[in-house]
């Protein structure tokens, strides 16, 4: 877990997501239905860590940015990336469920990923030949 306070984590993710969407603070506030002036002030206060966010507002911000609320609370870049990847891919989310339920399969997948390319290609070809 991060040593950063929760407000700092949220502020960093909020700025990152807003900038990736090409939105100003004012535009994000407007998308949230707060009006341009009120919205701009509120987003600025979140980003400057001057105000805490409520759960309802967290959901509204996430919806306006088209990201899962968990993304805005992720305490590391790796976790934030994983949350976005899982939210955008039902197949990947299912794979994670299967790997968590079957540790031996997760270990085998890691070993497979670490093989040199030629050996990995052979192993993948053998797996593809298995009946479904």
Features:
132 residues, mainly alpha, 434 Repressor (Amino-terminal Domain), 2 domains, 9 helices, Lambda_DNA-bd_dom_sf, Cro/C1-type_HTH
Task: Describe the 3D structure.
With about 130 residues, the protein is mostly helical. It folds into 2 domains: about 5-85, Orthogonal Bundle (434 Repressor (Amino-terminal Domain)); about 90-130, no CATH class. The chain is about 75% helix and about 0% strand. The chain contains 9 helices and no strands. The protein has helices at about 5-20, 25-30, 35-45, 55-65, 70-75, 75-90, 90-100, 105-115, 115-130. α6 packs across α7. It is elongated, with a radius of gyration of 20 Å.
| SS element count, helices | 9
In the CATH hierarchy, what is the class of the largest domain? Mainly Alpha
Strand content: under 5%
H/E order of the elements? Answer: HHHHHHHHH
* Known CATH architecture of the largest domain: Orthogonal Bundle
At the fourth level of CATH, the homologous superfamily of the largest domain is lambda repressor-like DNA-binding domains
Low-confidence stretches: none
Largest sheet: none
| Topology-level CATH name of the largest domain | 434 Repressor (Amino-terminal Domain)
Described by the principal axes of the CA atoms, the overall outline is elongated
Give me the count of strands: 0
Give the count of structural domains: 2
Distance between the termini: 39 Å
Instruction: Tell me the Rg in angstroms.
Output: 20 Å
* Share of residues in helices: over 70%
Structural class: mainly alpha
Mean pLDDT: 91
């Amino acid at each position: 877990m991060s040593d950063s306070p929760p407000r700092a984590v949220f502020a960093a993710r909020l700025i990152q997501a807003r900038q990736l969407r090409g939105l100003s603070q004012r535009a994000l506030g407007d998308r949230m239905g707060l009006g341009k002036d009120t919205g701009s002030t509120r987003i600025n206060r979140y980003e400057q860590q001057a105000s805490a966010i409520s759960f309802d507002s967290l959901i509204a911000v996430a919806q306006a940015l088209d990201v899962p609320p968990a993304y805005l609370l992720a305490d590391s870049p790796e976790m934030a990336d994983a949350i976005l990847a899982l939210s955008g891919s039902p197949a990947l989310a299912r794979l994670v469920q299967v790997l968590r339920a079957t540790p031996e399969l997760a270990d085998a997948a890691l070993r497979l990923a670490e093989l040199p390319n030629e050996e990995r290609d052979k192993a993948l070809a053998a797996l593809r030949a298995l009946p479904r």
